[in-house]
Amino acid sequence: MPSRVQRERRDRRRALTVLAGSADGVTEALMLARGFTIPLLVELIHAGLASATIDRVIAGGRTLNVVRLKITDVGRQELAGRAG
Description:
Helix content: 40-55%
Largest sheet: 3 strands, antiparallel
Strand order of the largest sheet: 1-3-2
Order of helices and strands: HEHHEEH
């Protein structure tokens, strides 16, 4: 069984891989649906590995705020450094 630290590193790398695979970014909802936690997403943002923007979307006559996450250049460098 992997340790907590190993799981966190694995989850962080997996999240960066998902973000790297989308030029337009990935919504917070999709990241949560993939099993990532809010604390992990916040950690990625605070570490400068990802950025978050709020998009306003109108659906069914209602305005919704949708959080979109994108990998940063620093995040790509970390992903490449760990892969190599």
